[in-house]
C-alpha cells in the first residue's frame, strides 16, 4: 500500500498514545485502524497489519520467557519481586504501596492452588 513515512509515524504515535492513555491496549489498535480507514486504506490489509503486530509482540514475549521463568519459579512470595535498597527503583514502582495487598492475594491464591 502506498503509505508515506509521515503517515505511518502519525498513525503509530496516535496508537501508542491511546494505548498508554486508555485503560486497555485495544484502544491503540482501534485508533490505528481508524487512522488507516481515514486515509482510505484497505480494511482487510489494515486489520491484518494490526494482527501481525500483535503476533510479533507475543513472539517477543515468548522469546524472553526462558530468561524470566527461572526467577519467577524461585519466588515464594510476590513481595520478593519488589527490590529493596535501590531508592530510585523503589520510587519508580507504582505498585509498591500495593505490596501488602498483592502479598495477601498471592497467599490466598497459593492456598487455593495447594488445596
The radius of gyration is 20 Å
Secondary-structure-based class equals mainly alpha
Largest sheet: none
Distance between the termini: 56 Å
Order of helices and strands: HHHHH
- How many strand elements? 0
How would you describe the overall organization of this protein?
The chain is mainly alpha-helical and 115 residues long. It has helices at 5-21, 26-38, 43-74, 87-92, 99-114. It folds into two domains: 1-73; 75-115. Helix 2 runs antiparallel to helix 3. The longest helix is centred in the middle third of the chain and has 32 residues, at 43-74. It is elongated, with a radius of gyration of 20 Å. It starts with a helix and ends with a helix.
Summarize the structure.
This protein has helices spanning 5-21, 26-38, 43-74, 87-92, 99-114.
Could you list some keywords that capture this structure?
single chain, 0% strand, 2 domains, mainly alpha, 115 residues
Layout: helices, strands, pairs:
Blueprint: H1 5-21, H2 26-38, H3 43-74, H4 87-92, H5 99-114
Helix pairs in contact: 1-2, 2-3
Amino acid at each position: 500500500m502506498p503509505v508515506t513515512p509521515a503517515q505511518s509515524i502519525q498513525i503509530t504515535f496516535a496508537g501508542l498514545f491511546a494505548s498508554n492513555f486508555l485503560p486497555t491496549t485495544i484502544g491503540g489498535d482501534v485508533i490505528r485502524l481508524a487512522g488507516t480507514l481515514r486515509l482510505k486504506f484497505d480494511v482487510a490489509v489494515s486489520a491484518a497489519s494490526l494482527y501481525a503486530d500483535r503476533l510479533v509482540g507475543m513472539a517477543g514475549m515468548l522469546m524472553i520467557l526462558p530468561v524470566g521463568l527461572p526467577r519467577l519459579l524461585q519466588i515464594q512470595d510476590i513481595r520478593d519481586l519488589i527490590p529493596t535498597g535501590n531508592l530510585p527503583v523503589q520510587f519508580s514502582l507504582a505498585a509498591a504501596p500495593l505490596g501488602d495487598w498483592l502479598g495477601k492475594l498471592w497467599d490466598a491464591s497459593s492456598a487455593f492452588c495447594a488445596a
